Fold:
Amino acid sequence: MASERAKSERAKSEQQSWTPAVLVLLASALFGFLVLPYLSGGVASKSALVGQVAPDFSLPVFHGGGDDPSRIKLSALRGNVVVLDFWASWCRPCTVQASILSAMLPRQGEHVVFVGVNTSDNPERARESAERQKLPYVAVLDTDGIADAYGASSLPTLVVIDPNGRVVSAISGVMSEAEVEKAIAQASESPPG
Structure:
């Protein structure tokens, strides 16, 4: 009986020694996945595209679209500040970024255009996500690997393009409204040419 009791106490002791380690690991993973993306803010990229002409694309529209809902051609938007939001339906921080952009859109002038670029995603899930979020801006499907051309390897990524078609900033991570406004203002101030 004493040996059974000793075995039971030893097993209980071993279980108790693992419990804190497992709890710390679990808490760390949850913090990193759920909280950290919102606290870190955007991270300015060292993109070689900054200052360069933005890679052109023509992508199919799956949400929004106005008069011509079939495709969006980036070069057709010259003369406007363009904010490209690279996102996916499975990306929680992307949902936060979309909410920020959606809230900003009504206060932007007519020469600021937001385009959601859905990448690495199932087209039907992307459509459902855009409808669920009630995105007030056009969303296109990245069928040509445009995210790679822009270096959007982590999501969300925002790329702001000036009216001359040059990349002014490329930011990965959730950007605050103030940070997005600053990038738009910087793009708006770009000299013509």
